[in-house]
Design a protein that fits this description.
about 525 residues; Heat Shock Protein 90; eight-stranded mixed β-sheet; 12 helices; about 20% strand
């Protein structure tokens, strides 16, 4: 009988490369995330360059003896996805790459145990029980790292404070205390070398609170703010940050597909606890395929609406040239107008990509005849509840606006709803009296230069990026068959989101069939 062996050094290096930040920043944020998941109210961090050592102690629930034993196994975790930040059981293991020893001490009731762990060879990471050093006073868990490099940034108090504040910014924002109170009822305090890290409010001349509402629920599912400064903001804080359970997952403007006229002077922070179940294994991004991908896209649509509306109120929604380019590219997307609306009945996970209209998202029936409708009916009911995804934003001191946001990306329009829409209403925005327009956050098609890429297109958030340097695209342009190429590229990009891998061929066939029927219907309408 053979035995499967693991090159631990190679595996740990691969895990490290999966995280976007530095190794030291990843280790620090993963340990703090474990403390938060344990219900800690105080996280004390101490740096000792003379030892050298970094010690992180929390007052959480602690671990049982068997839990501490499993703690040393790769990809082993007792946490459930969506209940907290961590669930993969791989983050803290990266510390073995840069530390000569990792001591973990836990105390829970009468149980008080500790272990010592190190990477002895590429294939061996032994650990053993050791007498507790008394790092935990009454209850909780302590991790003591001994970096092999005496100049490691883990021993720098400035780096530690900056990494904690940037990685867990919502926990330092008084404006987000209400949305986080359900998960952290007693709050969370950070202490660095005996000094408590104080909360910091967003400092800017203009700060607008945002409330994210899903469906018709009055209670916001997320909260945050958008600020506009008089001068340029540092690159680390520029753009809109999205967080869950207090940990910042992404930051910038690309993930929300919005580009204001002055992005260097704008920043924001939005906390959505429900997105914890959509995290990838490295907790640095969100899943975009399957049920969890549909959940993420639904919340992202609401965030788009809130941020776009506030940018419109500030008169900073983007440059006129960008709008002109979108209008010029609109005819390319018209062939796909009715396709998504029809397919959403049979493949419910496409629902977040259907255009949102004034008064709410089009109601999508879940009684389609396809097999995916049966497989995902419960998912669609739980995530979307066949109700609109809406969001609200308000200026400080005034009630949330009821006016929907204008479009900020090329969108695919659905089939007109059965019920007639109410007549357009008017509302006063910055710059005078304007007419309400429906918010459109459906599928967007953009073009990118991707030399060396084999994919025809890729789905990023709710935008299909078509690879214009692909040989097939150049051949389509030369033969004047761009329409069919775009339809096929969009179908290939949407297939992983809509269905399981085994059913992708069925989805692509159905997509192309609906695409052809949509052109015939449009031609008949023109003749009439």
């Amino acid at each position: 009988m053979g035995e499967t062996r693991v090159d631990l050094l190679h595996l740990l290096e691969d895990l490290r490369d999966a995280y976007p930040g530095s190794t030291e920043e990843t280790i620090l944020t993963e340990i703090v995330a474990n403390s938060l998941d344990s219900g800690a109210t105080t996280i004390a961090i101490a740096t000792d360059p003379t030892a050298p050592a970094l010690t992180i102690v929390d007052d959480g629930d602690g671990m049982k003896r068997r839990e501490l034993a499993r703690y040393h196994d790769i990809a082993a975790s007792a946490k459930a996805r969506g209940a907290g930040i961590g669930f993969a059981g791989v983050g803290i293991k990266i510390a073995l790459l840069v530390c000569s020893e990792v001591i973990t001490e836990t105390r829970r009731g009468k149980l008080h145990v500790a272990s010592s762990w190190r990477l002895a060879s590429p294939h061996n990471a032994p650990w053993r029980w050791v007498p507790p050093a008394g790092l935990v006073a009454t209850r909780g868990t302590a991790v003591r790292l001994s970096p092999t490099n005496a100049l490691s940034s883990l021993l720098d108090p400035g780096f530690v404070e900056a990494a904690v504040r940037q990685g867990f910014q919502p926990l330092f924002e008084p404006a987000l205390a209400e949305i986080l109170r359900a998960h952290y009822p007693r709050g969370v305090a950070f202490v660095l070398n005996g000094r408590r890290l104080e909360h910091q409010s967003a400092g800017a001349s203009e700060v607008a609170p945002l409330a994210i509402r899903v469906g018709r629920k009055r209670k916001p599912a997320g909260a945050g703010y958008l600020l506009r400064a008089g001068e340029s903001i540092s690159d680390e804080l520029r753009g809109v940050a999205i967080s869950t359970f207090g940990k910042v997952i992404r930051r910038g403007w690309d993930w929300v597909a919005l580009t204001p006229a002055a992005p260097e002077r704008m920043a924001g922070l939005i906390e959505v606890p429900a997105l914890a179940e959509c995290l990838t294994l490295n907790k640095a991004d969100f899943i975009r395929a399957g049920t969890r991908g549909a959940t993420y896209l639904a919340y992202r649509k609401a965030i788009q609406e809130a941020v776009s509306r506030q940018l419109e109120l500030w008169g900073d929604a983007g440059e006129p040239g960008e709008r002109a380019r979108r209008r010029a590219a609109r005819p390319v997307e018209r062939d796909l107008e009715a396709v998504l609306a029809d397919l959403a009945d049979e493949f419910p996970l496409l629902a977040p990509l259907v255009e949102q209209r004034a008064g709410g998202q089009r109601r999508l029936p879940t009684t389609g005849s396809g097999s995916d409708a049966d497989d995902h009916r419960a998912t669609l009911s739980a995530v979307h509840e066949t109700a609109p995804v809406t969001a609200e934003c308000a200026q400080p001191g005034q009630a949330p606006s009821e006016e929907p946001a204008t479009a900020t990306a090329m969108s695919v329009a659905p089939v007109p709803p059965a019920q007639p829409e109410p007549p357009p209403a008017t509302g006063r925005l910055a710059g005078g009296l304007r007419t309400r327009r429906p918010a459109r956050y459906g599928l967007s098609i953009q073009f990118e230069v991707g030399p060396g890429e084999d994919e025809l297109a890729r789905l990023v958030e709710s935008t299909v990026w078509v690879n214009e340097t692909h040989p097939a695209y150049r051949r389509a342009v030369a033969s004047r068959s761009e329409g069919y190429h775009l339809a096929l590229a969009v179908a290939l990009a949407l297939a992983p989101l809509a269905v399981d891998p085994a059913k992708e061929h069925t989805f692509i066939t159905a997509f192309l069939a609906r695409w052809g029927a949509a052109i015939e219907r449009r031609g008949g309408s023109r003749r009439r």
